[in-house]
Amino acid sequence: MAVNTYDDLREDYDSDSYGYLLRFCDWNEKWSRSHFPDCHIKDAGCWEVILFLRNYYKQKKHPPTQGELCDEDIVDINIITKIFPYEHQNRDEGWYEYVCRIAGLPRNTTGV
Predict the structure, then answer these.
(1) What's the CA gap between 1 and 75, in Å, rounded?
(2) Which residues are 13's β-sheet partners?
């Protein structure tokens, strides 16, 4: 377990080796902005997706599927990679996993 410290936040955040927060309750907007500076999380559409994911997880204790996220008309699948440019990451993940990390959701280990 790694502890990543962001001096400008003066807080410690425990994350796994993939960069996912270990505690859902540790997340805040400043964490996302400092942990994902290349993402340019600034437009309302980005925050709408992030907050939808967080609220869904908080209510149901699991993240929505990609299909559920798209069915909610929160995001258009054709523009998601423009909103969240995950290609720069040196990870074996797609847009959905990247957005879940930004939203502070736990890593999905079920493979679903």
Answers:
(1) 33
(2) 4
Burial bucket for residue 50 (CB in 10 Å: 0-12, 13-18, 19+): buried
**pLDDT value, residue 48:** 82
CA distances from 5 to 61, 99, 112 (A): 27, 21, 31
pLDDT tens digits, residue range 55-97?
999 999 988 888 887 777 766 766 676 777 666 555 667 778 8
Q: Please tell me the total number of residues recorded for the chain in this structure.
A: 112
The DSSP element (H or E) to which 59 belongs, if any, is helix 44-60
Provide CB contacts within 8 A for 47, sequence distance 6+: 41
* The two structure tokens encoding residue 64: 């929505």
The residue ranking higher by pLDDT, 91 or 27, is 27
Whole-angstrom distance, CA of residue 4 vs CA of residue 107:
17
- At residue 81, the 3 state secondary structure works out as helix
